[in-house]
């Protein structure tokens, strides 16, 4: 797989790299599931490769304003939670019962006190209290729980890009959304379809 996905990162004015985190059109819990890319391939791409990556995700997801200290044990715990979320998302998409073990893990992580927002005196900036990595993971786990308790649980889908496989919530009116994000997998699908049409046209002219 190419290390570029074709999406544009407007914050940095550059094409996004494979290691960049994805938050477009995603709930917090499923954005976290997306930290393992290319799930449908023989070589999934690990975006949480180091403890520092977990700290960076915590900031870029707006769960905290400063990277929390992260250890290898924290990283391992985060990956376990991520895969429990992935499997639970797939179960919701299939209208099937999730794994008991996965729900136990999600509940344990959610039981930790989450980060709480605090406005600055001018109400222009939000700071976070309780920004340890356990608090950030608690926010992720609680987001999945909130999803499961909402009407949107029946709108969970798996991305139609076979290389992706990340869950998403289809909030479209028709309920016919196919991609986790039109900026990434949707754009890639359009490019592939366009190239296929070009190839077909070229073959027809031979």
Share of helical residues: 40-55%
Instruction: Give the N-to-C terminal Cα separation.
Output: 30 Å
Estimate the strand proportion.
Answer: 5-15%
Mean pLDDT: 86
Low-confidence stretches: 6-12
**Which outline best applies?**
globular
Q: How many H/I helical runs?
A: 6
- Extended strand count: 8
Strand order of the largest sheet: 1-2
- Estimated structural class: alpha+beta
The H/E string reads EEHEEHHHEEHEEH
Q: What radius of gyration results from the CA coordinates?
A: 19 Å
Q: Sheet with the most strands?
A: 2 strands, antiparallel
How would you describe the overall organization of this protein?
The protein has 206 residues and is α+β, with helices and mostly antiparallel strands. It has six helices and eight strands; from the N terminus they run E-E-H-E-E-H-H-H-E-E-H-E-E-H. The strands form four sheets. A two-stranded antiparallel ribbon has the order 1-2. Strand 1 and strand 2 form a beta hairpin. Helix 3 runs parallel beside helix 5. About 3% of the residues have low confidence.
Give a brief description.
With 206 residues, the chain is α+β, with helices and mostly antiparallel strands. The chain has helices at 28-33, 51-60, 72-93, 100-110, 133-148, 182-204; strands at residues 4-9, 14-17, 36-37, 45-46, 116-119, 126-129, 156-158, 167-169. The chain has a two-stranded antiparallel sheet with strand order 1-2.
